[in-house]
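To close the section, here is one more complete example, presented without commentary so you can practise reading it yourself. The ligand is fe (ii) ion.
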Amino acid sequence: MVQTVLGQRNDKPGDPGYEESLARFEARIARGDKVEPGDWMPDAYRQQLIRLIHVHANSEICGALPEGTWICHAPSLKRKMALVAKVQDEVGHGQLLYRAAETLGKSREEMIDELISGKAKYSNVFHYPAESWADVCVIAWLIDAAAIVNQKMMAEGSYGPYARALKRICYEEAFHLTHGYDMCISMATGTKLQRDMLQNAINRWWEPIMMFHGPSDKESKHTEQLMKWRIKLKTNDQQRQEFLQKYLPKLFNLGLTVPAEWNLKLDPQTKEWTYAEPDWEKFIGVVRGGGPVSAQRLETRRLSHEQGRWIREALTAAARGQRAPMPAA
Amino acid sequence: MTDTQWPIFEVFHQQTRGEPHVHVGSVHAVDAETALLMAKEQFARRQACVNIWVVAADDITATPYEDADIFEHGTDKSYREAFGYQTTKRAKAVGDTEEI
Ligand SMILES: [Fe+2]
Ligand SMILES: [Fe+2]
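Output:
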């Protein structure tokens, strides 16, 4: 097993040999080489990756919550089975990602605890409630679409374990996206009530969706370094633009609209969408736990962590050859 | 709360009989038996799979990446590859027109 070598890594500016190691590291990245867990890497590279992968993993776990709520209210058995499968995938993605982050030296346990205690962040979109079945359709189509733009890019990144996990994740996301689009087509071509429900959901979700890829390049402080080290390959604004270019025409094609205040216009010259700048202060407030259902999400997560404790303890006891304790009645 | 920081098992997955087992990732588990269960849930949910191996990560001995130069060939080793020979051309010249 490739272990992360602790102890003296000389991986911070000012450490002996740091500049030489950094030059070699950056030359490797520029060649398109992948970085593996035991390799020398700057501490800043390690910390940025831990931060990003941790938030990504948390988002997969929290993303299962709004959808999970709707499993029992799915309109048909087929939709229900698909939703169960998607929710299971998302939780699986969370586990794959915690594992990838662990190879950088932070334990899964610590990451799970930091999510529950509210110390670690997760995606802005999961701080909002899924009010109707149409919300489930919008999440599965447009939020998964936005996530795929991001994950496809990250899958080409320089850190081997993260890139490998993302390749697998992207494969599964293809089903989420297709099923999400399928559900939205059903709603959009259904009764007036269904169309109105869908439009209403889009109206409510459009702001979080516009914020999904993170602050504008003008405000985002880490971008340059992240791109140099090929942790990220596109800026937040580039990802947002890619999402709009691909999905806005599909959305309009279904007879749906986007709230007028976003002032979305296609520039005929650049073929790029221009739009009203999202309120980034509001975004920061939401991801820090100030969203409409932030508290409820963490409470649900904490509760299910507690409710699952007995089975973790039973497994541990059984492995030691002891009798498994039963949950308190 | 350190109740799930269990040992790591590396997971190898075989798609069809006769194919090699391929490393697909890893899981945390209390023992090999539960690792198989976790691996099945995590890595065999939809793609074809006929067999899974799990190996305790601690039991794997690996070469360090810093020593990748041990794999560099000191000399031209094309003599041990089929492509190192122009035999098709030479066989034709001596009248052998069949595939070699
Ligand atoms: Fe996912
Ligand atoms: Fe997904």
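Once you have examined the tokens, check your reading against these statements. The first helix of chain A runs from residue 18 to 31. Residues 37-216+226-280 of chain A form a domain with the Ferritin fold (CATH 1.20.1260.10).
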